[in-house]
């Protein structure tokens, strides 16, 4: 099979694996590109199971990268959030975007995975999400089959929640999109009371500035504190703010621009028609891959919404 054909067929799968392992769009893309470049140079005639072979390479490259950058995570300033994966309606025909929407790449799920060790994360994803048997996983991660079985069950227990992929049906996705859109208009109004209407009373706000921009040092709890904090920040900001709706990690989210530059990406966890978690990624290093989106703009402080 030609490398180009393999790229088309397997890139979505490999990117999904790498992104969920790393929480980084750019690093995941680099690893996938590197795998196919290696394959192009070495050829594929000697490979019997192409899918397993490439998953093994991606898994090991991810493990190597995670180990080599572990110190950076240990000294990370403030809350760490994954790089947002932002797509638009025009991407829906892209096979990779279609694949990712069927897989669990939500911010909430990626953060759950961070509770696991690197090897636990790999074994868990290969077994639970990709349905490999333990013999295949053992070959990929260099452990015994029995050990992989133990690692998987330990990983599941440590997550402390039942693994439920974010496979929203059309109605749920539409309802979530409407809630996020209404929240966006409330956000751009700068009115704390309006913002609070869409939040669960026990909502939690996570912000990731990476020490590069101002952000909360710790998560902020409670709909009253969150709404007043966000409203106060927006009113004090001297620049011009605009917001755009986009798909963020497979679910409706918001891209925020300050003075026409990408300032933040917001993703959400929604439960029973209310926002329970808000994830603000403002670290500029995590936003460089986000292109300008060709979508209608909502401006602050004069929104055009209802």
Automatic annotation (TrEMBL):
Residue stretches making up the RNA polymerase sigma factor 70 region 4 type domain: 108-159
GO biological process: DNA-templated transcription initiation
Gene3D superfamilies documented for this protein: 1.10.1740.10, Winged helix-like DNA-binding domain superfamily/Winged helix DNA-binding domain (1.10.10.10)
Gene Ontology MF term list: DNA binding; sigma factor activity
Domain RNA polymerase sigma-70 region, residue spans: 6-70
Pfam families xrefs: Sigma70_r2, Sigma70_r4_2
InterPro entries associated with the record: ECF_Sigma-70_Domain, NTF2-like_dom_sf, RNA_pol_sigma-70_dom, RNA_pol_sigma-70_ECF, RNA_pol_sigma70_r2, RNA_pol_sigma70_r4_t2, RNA_pol_sigma_r2, RNA_pol_sigma_r3/r4-like
PANTHER family: ECF RNA POLYMERASE SIGMA FACTOR SIGJ (PTHR30173:SF36), SIGMA 19 FACTOR (PTHR30173)
SUBUNIT field: Interacts transiently with the RNA polymerase catalytic core formed by RpoA, RpoB, RpoC and RpoZ (2 alpha, 1 beta, 1 beta' and 1 omega subunit) to form the RNA polymerase holoenzyme that can initiate transcription.
Protein name: RNA polymerase sigma-70 factor
Species annotation: Paenibacillus piri
